[in-house]
Amino acid sequence: MLTCAACPAFDLNLCSAVSKVREAKGQRPDWSPLLVSAHTIPARRMISHPKEWSEFVTIICSGWAASSIATEDGRRQILSFLMPGDLVSAACLLEPVPGRSVEAITPVTCRRYRRDDFRAIMFKYPVVLERLAETWNEERAQAEQLALAIGRRSAHERVARLILGLAEKSEKRGLRRESTMEFPLRQRQIADATGLTAVHVSKVIGVFQRDQLIKISNRSLTIVNETELRRIAEWH
Amino acid sequence: MLTCAACPAFDLNLCSAVSKVREAKGQRPDWSPLLVSAHTIPARRMISHPKEWSEFVTIICSGWAASSIATEDGRRQILSFLMPGDLVSAACLLEPVPGRSVEAITPVTCRRYRRDDFRAIMFKYPVVLERLAETWNEERAQAEQLALAIGRRSAHERVARLILGLAEKSEKRGLRRESTMEFPLRQRQIADATGLTAVHVSKVIGVFQRDQLIKISNRSLTIVNETELRRIAEWH
DNA sequence: CGGCCCTTTGACGGACGTCAAATAGCGTGG
DNA sequence: CCACGCTATTTGACGTCCGTCAAAGGGCCG
């Protein structure tokens, strides 16, 4: 796999498109000059504000974050959890998308790139652009599946699916050993991601643990009975 | 406004990007050879099936349609209603997105274009591509707002917002006179779009009509008290 | 040690779902 | 034009899932 000098996490996601370019044409865009700055953000701090119309593109290098939108009176919906290698919204690669807030769950390290430089490279390498379109479609499909889940699935289904989805995502990034993964989410955040309340999430997770489906301790989660969890989640 | 010989509806949405191209460069891509076929589809018929991996791109020329996804056991979520000028998913302009079904609500006329030809033109005119990215972002934002609405808003809010959203969309396409618009939706479809049941939708709409907020008759809807409806909807 | 947030648990309530029956619309065919 | 059958809508009674409120730990950090 291709590594980017400035930021290894960079490769996990977007850069794989770039590596395709290189393989195809024996050339490789140089990302390094794009880098503007690296940051460390403590847990619970905002990474980007809803009204911010930033000229930068941010990528997560370590830690977890949550991307969310909210109603005027403060009710919140988390749209996705971000892990190392995720762009803080691929959608705003080309133009910034206001209205969304991104909050660090654990301490997060991230890097910022200048949007304009990004755009230039995007348009220069059509393969990158196409890969980007793929990513867009995935994100969109995920938002739509979220709407389906919240609108039509029970609380148990939703929580089970969230856990399986995060497990799958962790696995892809090599952040999972055996059936155990880091799991820094507060129940409040699970609630905001599933359209439930924290109290109800606590009850559902309580049932899951009593039924020996999962075990949670020390900010880490083990899937004990994956078969049954999948059945509850109607997973594939 | 630029008109496309083959299909006037074409201009309503995507073609405005093309007209920008022309203004900018004094040139205009010729869409006509792209056209493959025109169709008329009766109400309640599927326009595209969930498993269909079509090589065509479809655009609605008249009538209403609903784009939806479903769980394995048949629970359904309508993601958006399509009106004349809408692409049957802009997301699948470049690559087909399976898993989605699109169903005619009224009789629909539509036209199909060959996807590959489309791609070629897209990449040839970067301005079109950028406009397309905008459309993607809008669609995505709408999917996200839908998740927020279903997860965090009450039934009354959701239904009121759906009505206002459709009114706004109708207005943009000149399909609305005074405060009255065509409204061919069955309550079952409203339910599937808002994550409710048809029975409950009936009750909510009953309240709205009794409170003189709206009037529905003959498949058309009049907004009587827009101020109050907006208040209920928490609209802007 | 003290304060704060998180989690858990229980009691209770409400919003919405389910079921059922009556009515209204609407297209079809005689 | 009416009869028929289907589907949509309306309404009421009732049930349940999930929210709200409250109180009691538990964990974490200053």
Could you explain how this protein is built, in words?
2 copies of one chain form a homodimer. With 236 residues, chain A is an alpha+beta fold. The first copy, chain A, folds into 2 domains: 4-149, Jelly Rolls (Sandwich), CATH 2.60.120; 153-233, Winged helix-like DNA-binding domain superfamily/Winged helix DNA-binding domain (Arc Repressor Mutant, subunit A, Orthogonal Bundle). The first copy, chain A, has 7 helices and 11 strands. Chain A has helices at residues 15-25, 115-124, 126-152, 155-172, 187-194, 198-210, 226-233; strands spanning 35-41, 46-48, 56-62, 65-70, 76-82, 101-104, 108-114, 176-177, 180-182, 214-217, 220-223. In chain A, the strands form 3 sheets. In chain A, strands 2-6-4-5 form a 4-stranded antiparallel β-sheet. Chain A has a 4-stranded antiparallel β-sheet with strand order 8-9-11-10. A 3-stranded antiparallel β-sheet of chain A has the order 1-7-3. In chain A, helix 1 (15-25) runs antiparallel to helix 3 (126-152). Chain A is globular and about 55 Å long. The two termini of chain A are 30 Å apart. Residues 1-12 and 15-24 of chain A have low confidence and may be disordered. The A-B interface holds A 69-73, 75-77, 79, 91-92, 94-95, 97, 99, 123, 126, 129-130, 133-134, 136-137, 139-141, 143-148, 150-153, 194-195, 234 and B 69-73, 75-77, 79, 91-92, 94-95, 97, 99, 123, 126, 129-130, 133-134, 136-137, 139-141, 143-148, 150-153, 194-195, 234. Chain A binds a DNA duplex (30 and 30 nucleotides) through helix 6.
